[in-house]
Amino acid sequence: MSDTNSLKVLVVEDHSFQMEHITNCLVQIGVEQVLTASDGVEGLENISREQNSSAPVDLIICDLQMPNMDGIAFIRHLSLSNYTGSLIILTAMDASLVSSVTQMIKEYKIKFIGSLHKPIDTKVLIEFIAEASEYTDTPLSPPLPEGVSEKDLIDALLNNGLQSYFQPRFKFSDKSFAGVEALARLVLPNGRIISPDNFLYLYEKLNKSAELELQIYSQAFQLIKVWMQMGHPTQISINVGPSILANTDFYDELQALVKRHGIPTDLITVEVTERTLIDNTAMAIEYLSRLRLNGFHLAIDDFGTGYSSFKQLEILPFNELKIDKSFMIGIEADEQKQAIVKSTVELAKRLNLNTVAEGVETTEAWNMAKAYGCDLCQGYLTGAAKSKDNIRPQ
Ligand SMILES: [Mg+2]
């Protein structure tokens, strides 16, 4: 898993601190060729120089607000060059500006990966880089977490090393318990617990995502069955990643699993991310519509991190919108985050969607989300994810 990655990335950013942060993230995930430019003019010089070399730039990560030539002008010039790589934009601006810039990039026919909101969520950056690398000949191989081998991942699948943890959700209105989300944990034989950001993409690369996710669902349904027998029917949320949704057996396997455990489908919420939808648009519409038809609830997860997906919200029969934690963490002192969360909740209400605020870690964040009319809270403030032995129905 340590083969070198030939992805060539150009970062165009005027703030040295941000530049350093992004460069470090890129190096950490195995990108070896990182070029930097502090404004659009320098960025274009880099592009034209590299275009004449044997290995042109594959991906540009570009800030929108910069001195001399800003990101918007830079993108226009880029469209006039022969640049054939992809683009990620970086911004602290509000969602409406991002969506108009997104539109502009599409009009220019530049391969657009998505927009990253500052402060940058490393998890999203990794997903974006993985996607950009799919357009090149040598896909990216992010490193394994320290002390973990590929064999550990396979062993975990065979020997119950993958465990479902459960994070509780509560209503803002009266603080009552409103269900749990099943989240995967990798538990190594030495007891070390690894969180999904560090291994989900590795299973994806090994083509084992479906096995992983079905094990997690199965454990989740077992717990819900026990709780039902105790007289506590509880809403359970499960995550469906891009590769499992693309698996043609997915729908049947999920239905069979639900049937085997005797869980009513309306107790199950299927969460998909914006990226999952983009990767599988036609299939996503088919599967998700059928699930909805069969009584499952549907949630759009990590909302706001990827593409502007208001259109998908209208096309797909969602019941719930989960506001990504990057908008909730630090919201107390960040007016832009406040505006984004407030307008997202308003939009969701107009579309008749329940809203869940993820990453609620402080009482101030709780109060803000509650004041905006958000329905459910999920975060460290109300409880981290726990193993099945440590969580009780309420
Ligand atoms: Mg989720």
Description:
The chain is α/β, with parallel strands linked by helices and 394 residues long. It has two domains: 5-134, Response regulator (Rossmann fold, 3-Layer(aba) Sandwich), CATH 3.40.50; 150-390, Alpha-Beta Barrel (TIM Barrel). Helices cover 43% and strands 22% of the residues. The chain has 16 helices and 14 strands. The strands form two sheets. The protein has an eight-stranded mixed barrel, surrounded by four helices. It has a five-stranded parallel sheet with strand order 2-1-3-4-5, with helices on both faces. β7 and β8 (193-194) form a beta hairpin. The relative contact order is 0.10. Magnesium ion binds at residues 181, 239, 271, 301.
CATH superfamily of the largest domain: EAL domain
CATH architecture of the largest domain: Alpha-Beta Barrel
Q: What amount of the residues lies in strands?
A: 15-25%
Radius of gyration: 21 Å
Terminal residue distance: 44 Å
- The CATH class of the largest domain, by name, is Alpha Beta
Q: Which residues sit in consecutive blocks of at least 5 with pLDDT less than 50? A: none
Mean pLDDT: 87
Query: Main beta sheet, described?
Result: 8 strands, mixed, barrel
**How would you sum up the global shape?**
globular
Task: Please sum up the structure shown.
This protein is an alpha/beta fold and 394 residues long. Strand 7 and strand 8 form a beta hairpin.
